[in-house]
Amino acid sequence: MPAADVLLSWFDRTARDLPWRDPDCSGWGVLVSEIMLQQTPVSRVEPIWREWLARWPVPSALAASSQGEVVRAWGKLGYPRRALRLHEAAGVIAAEHGDVVPADIDTLLGLPGIGAYTARAVAAFAYGQRCPVVDTNVRRVVARAVHGAGDAGPPATTRDMADVAKLLPEQDAVAAKYSAALMELGALVCTARNPQCADCPVYDTCAWQLAGRPAYTGPVKAVQKFAGTDRQVRGRLLDVLRGATGPVTRGQLDAAWSEAGQRDRCLDSLLVDGLVEQTDSGLFALPGEH
DNA sequence: CATACGTGGTC
DNA sequence: TGACCAAGTAT
């Protein structure tokens, strides 16, 4: 993947106009977007992100709301523990960082829900730092364009970041934009299925293309089951609570799933996770909503 | 390192 | 139609 200029100019021409890419978007806006975008498509995140930033423009505002309100506002973005962790992170940012999202990667890594990807994404996209930002898109683009493979193998954070670090342009702001461009390329052109190689700005230098686009030969990726899993049951239970205005009876939750054993196990795990609380009278509610 | 963790769109 | 996929993190 040589010729950073080609990718950068392609990004200038075709990048989506996403609200968290506005130069005036705060670090908080960027952080909220990155958390929401973890395993969740842009199209589903954008409207919720707008609601959140309008309602909670700074971390302290979110921290002042109850966990239940936050989980409710998370809606059906999925993986609702993210909402709880973001709420907790907002409290730390408000209390210990002057209500400003930290720019230091190690400080960011210390916050709940922020891992190797998100910490660097915030450092790069909110603060213009030069650091490798490696998500699934970037891993796939590098696997193809640099290594000539059909797809990325299993994640190996240290090696993946070293791969990307070699590609980054020297200047901080340019490197940050380059990372965004790499992600955009993976999201729109160099996609997992049916990549649009004819529209690719780095077609001429892509190692995968030059090798004749060989099929992926690495280990088979585990398929994620959903139907019938605890994840589905937890989702159903939480959906009942989101749809209610206050605490509900165990009987109301019974309607969410027929098999009692699994239902009870999932309800217990939601209580353990803090996504559900039990009232003194034995009812169930979103945290803080009783 | 593998697995659990939501939800909905696409081919 | 059902498998695959979507800007990962925590354990």
UniProtKB/TrEMBL annotation:
Name of a matching Pfam family: HHH
Catalytic reaction equation(s): Hydrolyzes free adenine bases from 7,8-dihydro-8-oxoguanine:adenine mismatched double-stranded DNA, leaving an apurinic site
Single biological process term from Gene Ontology: mismatch repair
Cofactor: [4Fe-4S] cluster
Family: Belongs to the Nth/MutY family.
Record keywords, A-Z: 4Fe-4S, DNA damage, DNA repair, Glycosidase, Hydrolase, Iron, Iron-sulfur, Metal-binding
SMART domains: ENDO3c (SM00478), FES (SM00525)
Molecular function as annotated in GO: 4 iron, 4 sulfur cluster binding; 8-oxo-7,8-dihydroguanine DNA N-glycosylase activity; adenine/guanine mispair binding; metal ion binding; oxidized purine DNA binding; purine-specific mismatch base pair DNA N-glycosylase activity
Xref: Gene3D superfamilies: Helix-hairpin-Helix base-excision DNA repair enzymes (C-terminal), Hypothetical protein, domain 2
CDD domains named among the record's database cross-references: ENDO3c
Species name: Kutzneria albida DSM 43870
PANTHER family per record: ADENINE DNA GLYCOSYLASE
Protein name according to UniProt: Adenine DNA glycosylase
E.C. number: 3.2.2.31
UniProt domain HhH-GPD: residue ranges: 36-188
